[in-house]
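Case study B.
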Amino acid sequence: MGMGRIGARETKEPTLMDRALDQARAAAVAGEVPVGAVLVEAATGRILALTRNRIEELKDPTAHAEILAIRAGSAALGSPRLAGCDLYVTLEPCPMCAAAIAFARLRRVYYGAGDPKGGAVDHGVRLFDQPTCHHRPEVYGGIGETEAAGLLREFFRARR
Amino acid sequence: MGMGRIGARETKEPTLMDRALDQARAAAVAGEVPVGAVLVEAATGRILALTRNRIEELKDPTAHAEILAIRAGSAALGSPRLAGCDLYVTLEPCPMCAAAIAFARLRRVYYGAGDPKGGAVDHGVRLFDQPTCHHRPEVYGGIGETEAAGLLREFFRARR
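Model:
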């Protein structure tokens, strides 16, 4: 991060993707693949969940940031359907998470880094484009991509 | 179920798919789409999880029988990887569950009814056949299919 951004960081409110990136950093510190997510109720701006990958910590292969965000959001709203909610996640969702997003009827998905190997939104099976997909959220990719991809690169470099 | 089967049912040990079908019936009684699952440790035959769809009950869109079985199995074995385990499930897994099965490295998947609309194993995105899929379990479809499909048909007919 260049010196020129310091002033901006002091005066600017962190964005929701900034908060997802904070979660991704916390995941890396915990030895998890650095992916973070924020689930927000669009109409109110209320944050329903701040989550990160916790696969190793929870001994749970489904504990991706997105799944944990959806589960927490559903618990908060008392409903398995989250039609008025938006998800911010630092990495393009995998098929498991993309399908969960469709089941939850999320309104929008903002993601950071694209994932040609594991992604299922704009790569791989492109789940939301399948004729059998019942709900396609609006998708905005590449938000905070540089930072999100940098975290992942750094994490895998350090482990090699 | 015909009268002719009563004798057989009295003397025969229930199979693992029979137990998954019992879970599916319990789901229907609870107003959930009737899908049930059993996770078993292959080497010992130890049943790690008996689960059913609990989406409405838990207010959780990810609470499919397979996801709950994998989470329970991971908790029982203290690991997010279940390489020596087999899953019996009454319906062909969806993309969310198929991806979770791959992440969990399950050895085998036995499923009942095929699901042309929602399945992701032998229909739809055929997730395990994707080049980006890191683990493909052995898959055996059509086990207990008639009964599994009948339960689903009956459930949706009653709700119309």
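Chain B is about 40% helix and 20% strand. The remaining cases will be described in the next quarterly update.
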